[in-house]
Amino acid sequence: MTAPASKLLQPITVGPLELKNRIMFPPLTTGYEERDGSIGERSLAFYERLARGGVSYIVIGDVAPVMTASPTPKLATDAQIPTFKALADTVHKHGAKVALQLFHPEYDVPGVGRMVMGSMAAAKAAQEAKAAGDEETFAAKMAESNEIRKQAYAKLHHDMQHFVNEASVEQLTQIKEAIAASAARAQQAGIDAIEVHGDRLVGSLCSAILNKRTDEYGGSFENRVRYALEVVAAIKEAAPQLMVEYKLPVIMENPDGTPRGKGGLQPDEACEFAKLLEGAGIDMIQVAQANHTGNMGDTIPPMGAMPYNWTLPVAERVKALVSVPVATVGRVVSVEAGEKILEDGSADIVAYGRSLMCDPDIALKAATGEPIRECLNCNKGCVDAIQNRQYISCVLNAENGDEATIAIKPGEGDKKIAVVGGGIAGLEAARVAAKRGYDVTVYEASDHLGGQIVLAAAPPRKDEIMRSVEYYEKILPGLGVKVELNHAASPADLNAADAAIVAVGAHDVVIPVPGADSDKVVSSWDVLAGKVELTGRVAVIGGGLVGTETAEYLLQHGCEVAIVEMLDKIAAGESETILPLIMSDFAEHNVEQHVKTRLTAITDEGVEAIRTTEDGAEEPVKIACDYVVMAVGSKANAFDLDGVTVPVTCVGDCSGERTADIASAIRTAYHAANEL
Ligand SMILES: Cc1cc2nc3c(=O)[nH]c(=O)nc-3n(C[C@H](O)[C@H](O)[C@H](O)COP(=O)(O)O)c2cc1C
Ligand code: SF4
What we know:
Elements: E1 12-14, E2 17-19, E3 23-28, H1 41-52, E4 57-63, H2 81-92, E5 97-102, H3 109-131, H4 135-166, H5 169-189, E6 193-197, H6 200-206, H7 221-238, E7 243-250, E8 252-253, E9 259-260, H8 267-279, E10 284-289, H9 312-321, E11 326-329, H10 335-343, E12 349-351, H11 354-358, H12 362-368, H13 383-387, E13 416-420, H14 424-435, E14 439-443, H15 452-456, H16 467-475, E15 482-484, H17 491-495, E16 499-502, E17 506-508, E18 521-523, H18 524-528, E19 537-541, H19 545-556, E20 560-564, H20 579-588, E21 592-594, E22 597-602, E23 606-612, E24 618-624, E25 627-630, E26 634-636, E27 648-650, H21 662-674
Parallel strand pairs: 3-4, 3-12, 4-5, 5-6, 6-7, 7-10, 10-11, 11-12, 13-14, 13-16, 14-15, 16-27, 18-25, 19-20, 19-25, 20-21
Antiparallel strand pairs: 1-2, 8-9, 17-26, 22-23, 23-24
The site of flavin mononucleotide has 25 residues, from strand 3, strand 4, helix 11 and helix 13.
């Protein structure tokens, strides 16, 4: 337990609203909404869970005022109002307030829409021709449909870069009117506030980098922010009862001094604009990071990419200039950090984005001092999910995304549970079993908890992943869980309990090629565990996640590195927000990347392999090196159940589910412990 928070829990008045505390959920596209953008059961359950966790203010991200093809919420027709009313009613039951973040995409929505409809009409005509046995017309109409669809994508791609400059004043006016109409519907639905999305189309217009217009919306600072202020005025007129706040995207600086993001304002202009926003009647300003580079990692940096809460210096400047409340967002991962921001007077409200996906009870726990489960900023279950057009499901929170159906069940009587293995799966199983009221003992053969997470934390930028283990170290004692380190569990230990959960992890494997038993061959796990120290030139076999991370670790330790990967891509499956960081590290250190290359032998000189060329031919490759590091995957460990008489469930890597996958470890453990 830590000291209960005091600042975060103080109420605050924002325009016409009384917020019960200073913890807000910033706009996060979730993928939970219905296909037409209405609020359905999954969304309702998620936002209700947040509200139940005590957050005072929830912003629904990227709500479009028009029917777009993008998978975001939409409040574009009156028919959708009831679903948003259900949202407002649900959130209000728990004393929270809710806002819609209204935005317009950076493309000609009706124009692209007409092309998509044209493509669909041609496809329909093709099917009708086929049914009538007219193969010639079928082929012609299908070709027409495909061509129009291709053109629609081409227009979309073009518009994303040029619509800001090509949109006519008439189009901009129509968009503004659509946003205002959506705000009016929100008011009708009982929604409390509108957040103007200052990025996207509005941010492109504000940006000196993107906006090249020569009319009244381009050129000078006053002209570039004109449209944003018109949008604010239109919303206020259409929905006069609502609180209206503004997400102010700021072009910050990368660690190497280059500008971060394009679609917003430089800090000095952002401060000027904040004063104009206050003059325009904005009730709150949320200072955030600008984007528009095509990399979501700009606004949502993965662990280690940017300092914690890197936009705070601009929030402080804005706060000194305006009298309305200022919110800060971006990599605030702890209650202590939020408290400090408020204590220092740097901002008035703290937005916890990914953190609330990971632990929706931040406000409740801030009140009791119970440790929160801190987000890793890994981006795997949230940003990657959205980029792959899936719904958000935090890797550490087994309930996230399924709040309506998954919750920890009450225990069934008194039970003793033995958990074998103190890796992340064993620890999650122990937590869930203890929360159900069971008497839990964790047996860990080594002298520390965390299992493979400790290895995963070794590469550059990855140490934040240890927060996942530290969470259990903080909470398990309070839940009465006994942890026995340096204790390899015996059948007697298991039999002394009523049931056992086995979470004994996995081991890494070696490709059995000639020379694989040579002294120069070492395991990536031993490298990351610091058991061996390598120097000179190293060939890493396997360019998956472990291989690339081991390569980065070796670079950091002064080695020269070559990677040998069978697939055609290095780091396949790595987050799109992390990949650019790895690739720039590799480019800086001249890492050789041998893709479509299969290891065949390890010799005194190095490794021999076969590369498949573009035309499918095979050619031999020789890579000279001092060491060969195997990073070619892992295999489930087996636990000897001889003599064990109590029911046993295997979870995590040893369960045969995907190995080296946190989400799978957490989920198998959670569900097994919930069924005991
Ligand atoms: C999955 C995901 C979706 C997001 N969608 C939006 C969005 O729709 N609109 C927006 O302005 N910001 C969006 N963001 C950015 C967040 O509002 C926030 O600025 C960012 O996550 C940094 O805060 P955090 O470190 O507390 O997560 C999104 C972030 C995530 C992780
Ligand atoms: S998936 Fe990772 S970054 Fe996303 S909310 Fe969960 S812990 Fe945080």
